[in-house]
Amino acid sequence: MALKVRVVGVGDAFTARYYNACLLVESANTRLLIDAPPALARALRDLGERGGETVSLDDVDSVLITHLHGDHCGGLEQLLFWRRFVTQRKCSVYAIAPVLAGLWEGRLRGGMDVLLDGEGARHPLRLEDYATLVTLGAEGPTEIGDLSIAWRETVHHIPTSALKITHRGATFGYSADTSFDPSLIAWLAESALFFHETNLGIHTPLGALESLDAATRAKVRLIHYPDFHDPAQTSMATAREGDAYTV
Ligand SMILES: [Zn+2]
Questions:
Q1: In what order do the strands lie in the sheet with 62-64?
Q2: What average pLDDT does range 162-179 have in this prediction?
Q3: How far is the CA of 119 from the centre of ligand 1 (A)?
């Protein structure tokens, strides 16, 4: 099996039409979720409604969080509680060091640091009780099953990792959230194809991506776009929920 990427969500932080941006990577023996947006269980189930194999929270053993904004990690509590209460199998959470360091105190602790048992006793918990935590290496790629993950930091409000994911010589990239950064695009363009965000404000303007050279432009699949984005109005290929790409 080659490297397959399924598009779980394409929307931005304010979308009323889509799921928030999220990708599911699958190889011969590894499945890796890239980001865990709100309504995660439904977003995964809808992959099946769109013609692909249905995926549930049981099936996600590894999740990589690109950064701590809610549209990228707001579904993690649902996944971790499900794995604790229902399947009782920990999953692994991967992120760069500053993201992993902030995940508990900055996002999850308030809802997860105490659990009540059947006798009414309260038990304190830490993030490590819910998941195996793995920092993406700073020196070289991190292996996740038969995938190899390289990253570099993007230009965003808070620490954020763009990714290149390789399996048996095939690579795809993901910008995650970023301002327009030609050096990042050159790095991503070493891949066969890459998903790149586009949005307003400090995000990457569509026009900047449209001005790339033709060979680079052909590798881009737009994601994290605003609800008003009209694929028919641009020469850029636009990722849609349920799409499956093989590289
Ligand atoms: Zn963000």
A1: 131-135, 91-95, 62-64, 31-34, 22-26, 4-9, 244-246
A2: 97
A3: 41
